[in-house]
């Protein structure tokens, strides 16, 4: 009678002495002090899958199979956690790079504004200088026109001078001739007096 109630013999276990138990899961660093972490949703989904349903005789799968499957799932969870940590680190790095880029963009914007203001000042100075140069150029053109007029007047005066010089030479010659004639005037006067006396004697 006692042999009938013993049930089926135990199935031999493979693996280390603690086979059949889940390997220890390290607590997530962000969950310290919050108690044990709840099962990962992936584990819950896997547990709900048909692979853990009872067999045709109503017995659960072998513990070694369950352990192996849970180990695979644990590795997948740890890989997901590592991926999440890498994504979080990447997110932080990208955020820092974005902040640095925004800061650099702000500095470049300030630098561009200062350059634009400096360029405006330089353009204003160049415009004022061009206005002064144009005024100086107009004055220079007026002086050039005046110089051309003066040169024309000088040429005209030179022609007048040459004409006057010729007239002076003619007048000098006439004066010389008249001076000679004036020097001969007493002789002519004496001859005229002699002619008058001879006319009177002839009468």
How many runs of DSSP E, i.e. beta strands?
0
Uncertain regions: pLDDT < 50 for 5+ in a row? 1-37, 49-54
Helix content: over 70%
Question: Kindly, what is the distance between the CA atoms of the first and last residues, rounded to a whole number of angstroms?
Answer: 228 Å
Radius of gyration: 67 Å
Biggest sheet: strands, sense, closure?
Answer: none
Can you walk through the features of this model?
Belongs to the FLX family. Keywords: Coiled coil, Developmental protein, Differentiation, Flowering. InterPro entries: FLX/FLX-like. This protein is an all-alpha fold and about 200 residues long. It is built from three helices and no strands.
Tell me briefly what this model is.
With 203 residues, the chain is mainly alpha-helical. The protein has helices spanning 41-48, 63-183, 185-202. It has a domain at 63-196.
What key phrases describe this protein's structure?
203 residues, mainly alpha, 72% helix, rod-shaped, disordered N terminus
Provide the fold topology.
Blueprint: H1 41-48, H2 63-183, H3 185-202
